[in-house]
Amino acid sequence: MAAKIIDGKAFAANVRERVKAHVTRLVEEHGVRPGLAVVLVGENPASEVYVRSKGKATKEAGMKSVEHKLDAATSEADLLALIDRLNRDETIHGILVQLPVPDHIDADKVLAAINPAKDVDGFHISNVGLLGTGQKAMVPCTPLGCLMMLREEHGSLAGKEAVVIGRSNIVGKPMAQLLVKDSCTVTIAHSRTKDLPGVVSRADIVVAAVGRPNMVTAEWIKPGATVIDVGINRIEKEDGGTRLVGDVDFADVSTIAGAITPVPGGVGPMTIACLLANTVTACCRMHGLAEPEGLTA
Ligand SMILES: NC(=O)C1=CN([C@@H]2O[C@H](COP(=O)(O)OP(=O)(O)OC[C@H]3O[C@@H](n4cnc5c(N)ncnc54)[C@H](OP(=O)(O)O)[C@@H]3O)[C@@H](O)[C@H]2O)C=CC1
Ligand SMILES: Nc1nc(=O)c2c([nH]1)NC[C@@H]1CN(c3ccc(C(=O)N[C@@H](CCC(=O)O)C(=O)O)cc3)C=[N+]21
Fold this sequence. Notes:
With 297 residues, this protein is an alpha/beta fold. The chain has 2 domains: 30-115, Leucine Dehydrogenase, chain A, domain 1 (Rossmann fold, 3-Layer(aba) Sandwich); 141-267, Rossmann fold. It contains 10 helices and 11 strands. The chain has a 6-stranded parallel beta sheet. A 3-stranded parallel beta sheet has the order 3-2-4, sandwiched between helices.
């Protein structure tokens, strides 16, 4: 039987509506408007697309949106000075520095400079540590979006076998933490994993975050498993154009999976919706106001 296709775009639209409703309450009842600052260093066509769609979605949700586009040659000191200004700006509740940053800038140092309360990406070590110890944290947007879709699909995740392919700090590791927190039995696989197909075939839940087009095929998948495809890979078409594909061979895997996210239209839109949700959450925490329900981990 063909897999259910999880409509990330529709789910994200629903999350954005709920964010917008909460923003309206914050503005009307408390005179507070959540603000998000996105910082982009250098010219990266893909990053510019994301930054533009983040800005548009932020405004549509009724929030303040600020974009800082810095020259590729911007010094680390100048970037740190901008972050310091945004940290002290009371109209800004969320700060996101688009990754990757140019080689002459130390990304760890930049992330550590962001006020953890405004760290809507959840990349600051104090948020990483809070998440890892099961405390209230800012949770990275992509894994949070994946978790929301999995909870919607399954209700409780307790006792499920989950395999996360990829161990990056921005997707794989925080995804695994969230699944453990929801009582899954979690395996993290990576490039040195032996018998990856064998490991993946045990899973009730597969999250692929690798960056290799169509790597995961039907033979790896336990019948009925839920497959979340985080990968964003731009590949050449026969006609010379390009198209986006995930890390999962969608046509193949959807013949055996129980449910699957498409690329595009799956995890990507949820990432942006969760960024807005995190900005509202950060704003509420900063002002000691009630947080939106169902929009945090
Ligand atoms: N939809 C969205 O919102 C987002 C999508 N992405 C996409 O998700 C993908 C992953 O991103 P990110 O985590 O940043 O990528 P990284 O490159 O940081 O990490 C990739 C991971 O995949 C592992 N890996 C590489 N090759 C293999 C292999 N052959 N078998 C098993 N594991 C392998 C690597 O292992 P090792 O550690 O051993 O090198 C690494 O842990 C990319 O396509 C990216 O574009 C990312 C962020 C957001
Ligand atoms: N500090 C930081 N935080 C991030 O969250 C971050 C980052 N840096 N660097 C780059 C990655 C990538 N990322 C995506 C967001 C949305 C889509 C998205 O909306 N994708 C659409 C398609 C978009 C298109 O057509 O290009 C979809 O999958 O349907 C994809 C990828 C966030 N990232």
